Inverse folding.
């Protein structure tokens, strides 16, 4: 779990970063939604924790995978034998994509080449990164309603 100090800190911001500063493997440690009026909520709270990973390689690849931690095994051994209902249940809450990343004007651009959500292929997810030690925050661009997300990651230092 992330500390209050992590959420309210002065950190190294994207404008001071290079792409190589992001290189590493990170495990998700939560996210929050910030409304236009500044109200902060945690979308899943304790109800539905997620298992999430993001990897930035020195070759410029980004890989993101996030699944609900409470997913149950299905009734078959091979995915090809799953029913439509089981397939739909497996997909619920999953975020998965990969592509190239680059830093531009203090923001990291995830240029998506493959994604579980096909509408993301060919577009960029743009995030403003900031660090405090091994803790990385990726802040999304504002939505039409002025809200945005902060996604928190901790760098994995050993396997």
């Amino acid at each position: 779990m992330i500390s209050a100090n992590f959420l309210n800190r002065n950190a190294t911001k994207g404008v001071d970063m290079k792409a190589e500063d992001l290189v590493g493997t990170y495990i998700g440690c939560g996210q929050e939604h910030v409304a236009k009026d500044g109200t902060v909520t945690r979308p899943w709270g304790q109800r539905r924790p997620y298992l999430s990973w993001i990897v930035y390689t020195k070759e410029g690849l980004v890989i993101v995978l996030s699944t609900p931690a409470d997913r149950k095994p299905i009734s078959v051994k091979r995915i090809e034998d799953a029913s439509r209902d089981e397939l739909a249940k497996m997909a619920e809450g999953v975020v998965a994509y990969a592509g190239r990343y680059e830093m531009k004007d203090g923001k990291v651009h995830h240029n998506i080449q493959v994604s579980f959500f096909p509408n993301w292929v060919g577009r960029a997810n743009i995030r403003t990164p900031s660090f405090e030690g091994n803790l990385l925050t990726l802040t999304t661009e504002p939505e039409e309603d002025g809200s945005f997300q902060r996604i928190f990651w901790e760098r994995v230092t050993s396997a």
